[in-house]
Amino acid sequence: MAIMSKEYYADIESVYKKPEDYELAGKGNAYIRIDAEAKVTGTAVYTDDVDLPGMYYCKLVHSPYAHALIKSIDFTEALKVPGVKGVLTGQDFPEGHNLGNPEAFKELADKEPLCRKKVRMVGDEVAAVCATTEEAATLAASLVKVEYEPLEPVLDPFYSMQPDAPAIHYPGTSNLSIFTTMKAGDPDKAFAEADYTDKRYYRTQQMVHAAIEPHGAVAKYENNEWTVWTTTQGAYVSRYWIAWGLGVPESQVRVIKPMIGGGFGGKLDVFAHELCPCKFAQMTGHPVKCILKRDEVFMCTRTRHPISFEIESAFTKEGKLLAKRCKHILDGGAYGGSGIAANTLSLICATFPYKVENIDMTARRPY
C-alpha cells in the first residue's frame, strides 16, 4: 500500500491561458498531421500489419473464475494439435518480476506475466501456446485443461475494505492497494464560517476504452536481443516493463511503436500478450505474433475505474467556493496497473476549474 501526501493548491491564473494567447489552427496557418497521408491512403502500418518471414502465432489461456487457486495445467491434448511449437506457464518467467505502472512505483507491481498459483479475475492469463498458424494456436489453447479450486470472489470495493473480506493478494493484510490524500489551507475553519454547505454523492461506471484497434504485439529474437512491435502508448514504458518481465537489461529490448488505432489510456500497461511472444520467439527462433480478440480486450486489459464520490462544498452567500472535502473510492479491480495515477488524478480534478484554497481530500483504491 502506498500513502501519498502533498500540499495541493491550484492557482488557475497560472495554469490556464486566455484564448487570445493561443495560436489557432485554421486561422492563417496550414497545419498538416504527419500521419494524415498514410492513414487516408491506407499505407499506415499497424501492429497487426507486421508480417515477418516464418512467423508463428501465440494464443492465451484465460481463467473463467474471478478468484481461484490453480491446481494443475495439462497440455497433453493441446500438444497433439499439428503445428504446435511450444507452451508457457507462469513458471517460465522469473518469479517476482511482476508488471505494473509507472516504473517509479515498481514495489506496487502485482501482475504476473502468467499466473503461477492463483487467479484474481475472469480473464486472468494462466498459460499460452504457440503454433505455426493462428488457427492451430487457437485450437490448442482451447484444449489446455486447467484445474481450479474456486475461492470467494470480491466484487464490491466497499466490501473489499472490510476486515472479513477475502485477501485478493496478500494474506493477513488489507485489500487497500493505494491511499492518496491532498490537503491545503484550513478547510475546517472555512466550513465553520461558510454561509452554505452542500454534500452530494456521485458514482461513475466502469468503462472499456474500446479503441478500434485491439491490443497486440509481434516479437523477434536475434543475437540475444528482442525487437517488439506493440500497440503501446509509451514505447519507453513498454521497454522497461518487457525487460523487467523477462528478467533482462533494457539494453536487450527494442520497442517499435507502429501506428496506433486508438488508446485513450487503455494501452499504457504491459500485458501477457507482449511478454509471451518474446518468450516464444526466444524458444523457437521464429518471430511470434499475438493479437487479442475483442472479448479478450474487455476481459484482461485495463478499464477506467468505477468511482464513488462523496463531495462536500462550502460557499459564501455570494457564491464563492470556500472549501471542499472529498472522499473517493475507486474500484481497483484485481491489479494495480496505472491505478496510482487514477487515484491522484481523481483528486486533482475534483477542484478544477475553480480556485479552492481550502481542501481535505482522500482517495482509496482497494482491490
UniProtKB/TrEMBL annotation:
SMART domains: Ald_Xan_dh_C. Signal peptide: none annotated. One of its GO terms (molecular function) is iron ion binding. Residues 41-152 form the Aldehyde oxidase/xanthine dehydrogenase a/b hammerhead domain. SUPFAM superfamilies: CO dehydrogenase molybdoprotein N-domain-like, Molybdenum cofactor-binding domain. Keywords: Molybdenum, Oxidoreductase. Gene3D superfamilies: Aldehyde oxidase/xanthine dehydrogenase, a/b hammerhead, Aldehyde oxidase/xanthine dehydrogenase, molybdopterin binding domain. This is Molybdopterin-dependent oxidoreductase. It comes from Candidatus Scatomorpha pullistercoris. The lineage of its organism: Bacteria, Bacillati, Bacillota, Clostridia, Eubacteriales.
